[in-house]
Write a structure and sequence with these properties.
4 helices, single chain, 6-stranded antiparallel beta sheet, binds methionine sulfoxide, 34% helix, globular, Beta-Lactamase
Length: 153
């Protein structure tokens, strides 16, 4: 995706390569988290939350640890994405009331849903230490990875 820090084509190629070498769900989610974070700033930490009933469960991540290993649908920015069916691009987390803080350095958050047809499988949650860093190009790049995962998982 031109203009984006995240080179989604490369991440998707890595995911497809791993898939053809029999990498399973856990490995693909971990690879996605690591490859996205490897893009560097503004990508600080990447969390793959997958939907299990009415809860999002943290299945893979790269970057800072989080206490939020399970998030009910409707709670926080992550749970709001599932409840509304809409990606969330929060430029300044201090400005929203429903933010679940993991640490004090995170300033912004991007949540892109992983969808297969009408079904929501989970989400890619990106934290950044920068304010308002996720341009439409970054959003599109993360969405490209999410769409690839929806096919490969
Ligand atoms: N900030 C998220 C919780 C997940 S952590 O950022 C990893 C939220 O508000 O839902």
């Amino acid at each position: 995706m031109s203009g984006a820090v995240l080179d989604a084509d490369r991440v998707v190629a890595a995911l497809r390569g791993a898939f053809t070498h029999d990498t399973g769900r856990q490995g693909l989610l971990q690879l996605a988290a690591e490859r996205i974070r490897a893009a560097g700033a503004p990508y600080t930490s990447v969390y793959l939350y997958m939907l299990h009933g009415a809860e999002l469960v943290l299945e893979a991540w790269s970057g800072r640890d989080t206490d939020h290993s399970r998030i009910p649908v409707g709670t926080g920015v992550c749970g709001t994405a599932v409840a509304t069916g809409e990606d969330q691009n929060i430029g300044d987390v201090t400005a929203v009331g429903n933010y679940l803080a993991c640490n004090l350095d995170t300033r912004s958050e991007l949540v892109v849903l992983i969808r297969r047809g009408a079904a929501i499988l989970g989400q890619i949650d990106v934290d950044s230490d920068a304010v308002n860093p996720f341009t439409p190009a970054e959003e599109a790049a993360v969405r490209q990875v999410a769409d690839a995962l929806a096919v490969l998982l």
